[in-house]
Design brief:
CATH architecture: Alpha-Beta Complex
Low-confidence stretches: 1-19
Mean pLDDT: 88
Order of helices and strands: EEHEHEHEHEHEHHEH
Strand order of the largest sheet: 1-4-3-2-5-7-6-8
CATH class: Alpha Beta
Shape: globular
CATH superfamily: Spore Coat Polysaccharide Biosynthesis Protein SpsA, Chain A
Radius of gyration: 18 Å
CATH topology: Spore Coat Polysaccharide Biosynthesis Protein SpsA, Chain A
Number of domains: 1
Distance between the termini: 38 Å
Largest sheet: 8 strands, mixed
Length: about 270
């Protein structure tokens, strides 16, 4: 993983704050936002998250100077925000991994992942966190409900991905693996990264969900609206990222064959 340098004026405390969520002792969440050139939407995303009163790691994955300027302004204005700057663009997965490892190093137990492009309904974040607090061992995944303007190629592409994920897990528990709105139990994430080098592009999101399922992590799914801006900035490269997805699912299917006896034994037990 590429090394990173921190660029911030207001550092987060090394001791996680008490969670504002009721009934959650030992539950210390934060927010992780990977960003690459989303200068036009990141401020609104951060503003929408303020009501949660949670520390927020924004991971700049080698953005352009205009985006860095916006992040610098956010950093100065928001005491709960820490900007982590990666020297070069490594992919969405690399940025998320950097943020989750930073959260672990600060002592947080859970991380809410939110995309920087404004497509998620941030008002649902509290629902995600409350579900996570009530089931702290679980991976909480967003299950998108799409508006009519959603690109059909993405909608159908998700269905293909769902099919392979169901084969890889022999289960229908995971309803969506591509939505970047989710809550990670960081101890489970760390256990996987200690053993496996995870993929670092768009293929990270489905891989970590499948591997957590293999590890016995409970899965919770929450329906949440996703709005695609037809004029918005997307970093999905149709050819390269689809090839990465094909490579990922080929690898996971082969691994699943090896894991099949243990999966079946766990189901029987």
């Amino acid at each position: 993983m590429p090394s990173s340098t921190k660029s911030h004026r207001v550092a987060l405390s090394s001791t996680p704050p008490r969670s504002p969520l009721p009934g959650s002792p030992g539950f210390h969440p934060c927010v992780v936002i990977p960003i690459y050139n989303h200068k036009d939407t990141i401020t609104q995303v951060v503003d929408a998250l303020e009501g949660l009163d949670l520390p927020c790691f924004i991971v700049d994955d080698g953005s352009d100077s205009a985006t860095k300027q916006v992040l610098s302004e956010i950093n100065l204005e928001k005491q709960q925000v820490e900007v982590i700057t990666r020297r070069a663009n490594g992919g969405k997965g690399a940025a998320v991994i950097t943020g989750l490892l930073a959260a672990l190093a600060k002592g947080f137990t859970h991380a809410l992942q939110v995309d920087a492009d404004g497509q998620h309904q941030i008002s649902d974040a509290r629902i995600f966190l409350e579900r996570s607090a009530s089931a702290p061992d679980a991976l909480v995944l967003g299950r998108p409900t799409f508006a009519e303007n959603a690109p059909q190629v993405r909608v159908y592409g998700r269905r293909i991905t769902h099919f392979f994920v169901w084969l890889e897990t022999l289960s229908l528990e995971i309803k969506d693996t591509l939505c970047g709105f989710r809550v990670y139990p960081l101890s489970a994430f760390k256990a996987i990264t200690d053993k496996t080098r995870l993929r670092e592009h768009m293929d990270f999101d489905p891989e970590i969900a499948v591997r957590m399922h293999w590890a016995g992590v409970p899965i919770l799914n929450i329906d949440t609206p996703v709005q695609y801006d037809q004029q918005g900035l997307s970093h999905f490269d149709f050819k390269r990222d689809n090839l990465r997805m094909i490579s990922l699912h080929t690898q996971l299917l082969l691994e699943m064959v090896v894991r099949l006896p243990s999966i079946l034994l766990r189901r029987v037990g």
